[in-house]
Design goal:
By secondary structure, the protein is of the alpha+beta class. The chain is built from eight helices and five strands; from the N terminus they run ααααββααβαβαβ. It has helices at 5-42, 44-58, 70-75, 85-103, 124-127, 137-153, 176-195, 219-225, and strands spanning 109-114, 117-123, 157-162, 202-206, 227-233. Helix 1 (5-42) crosses helix 2 (44-58) and helix 4 (85-103) packs antiparallel against helix 6 (137-153). It is elongated, with a radius of gyration of 28 Å. The chain starts with a helix and ends with a strand.
Length: 234
């Protein structure tokens, strides 16, 4: 008995229909990811808002998007309880101004932002005696003033130690690598032991003289290169 060709064609059509549904799904997913990429590159605040709402949808919360006010926009970065970058930087600037006044010398401490995040730069004379890695009393005072804002930011920290290009060779430090690394780890140890800063959110690096901010051609310029940088990472 010969099969009906029309019946075979109908069966083949029925079997192939899932491909249409699959192709539609892939197209929708592609459009979704293009939309998310556009948000992430052109409107970080909106991207974060969409991301948060989607998270709420999949965890049983409300997925309704709300058009926030300007004040809400400033808080988007800190939805986890942290403080926005602008607020952190402003607070740290105020505290650093007070620290600089207490130290009696200008430009020992400064705050700025770069591609790494918010940077607190402290000249070595405010923290350590020459050729030493033990924190001075002035360092402890400075830490006491800036730590509350650092903790409030809930950001990860990178502590960087830097020296000038004058060689060191003592019983404790055979080179500027050892000195810069030890100074960075001393700051880390102080934050963890004194303030219970979470150890998993902090790291230390020593760069010796190899990341200068000024030429090592005069005593004044070399002094600028001897520094600790506390970086609130992006």
């Amino acid at each position: 008995m010969r099969k009906n060709p029309n019946t075979e064609d109908e069966q083949r059509d029925n079997l192939d229909r899932w491909l249409i549904t699959y192709a539609d799904l892939i197209t929708l997913l592609l459009a979704f990811f293009i939309m998310m990429y556009t948000f992430s590159t052109q409107d970080a605040r909106k991207y974060q808002e969409v991301s948060d709402r989607l998270k709420n949808i999949f965890t049983g919360g409300s997925g309704v998007l709300k058009s926030g006010s300007a004040a809400d926009s400033k808080k988007m970065e800190g939805q986890d309880g942290s403080v926005g970058a602008v607020d952190i930087e402003k607070e740290l600037e105020n505290e650093v101004a007070a620290i600089s006044g207490a130290l009696g010398q200008e430009h020992k401490v400064s705050v700025f932002r770069d591609e790494r995040g918010i940077v607190i730069r402290i000249m070595d004379t405010a923290l350590f005696d020459e050729g030493k890695a033990a924190l001075k009393e002035t360092a402890i005072v400075a830490m006491r003033k800036i730590v509350p804002t650092i903790e409030k930011s809930k950001r990860n920290l990178m502590i960087e130690g830097h020296t000038d290009n004058v060689p060191i060779n003592t019983a404790e430090f055979k080179s500027n690598w050892e000195l810069s690394t030890r100074r960075a780890t001393e700051v880390v140890r102080h934050l963890i032991e004194k303030y219970d800063f979470p150890a998993q959110r902090i790291s230390a690096s020593g760069y010796a003289e190899f990341k200068p901010v000024a030429d090592n051609d005069t005593p004044k310029h070399r002094a600028l290169n001897r520094r600790i940088e506390i970086i609130l990472l992006k």
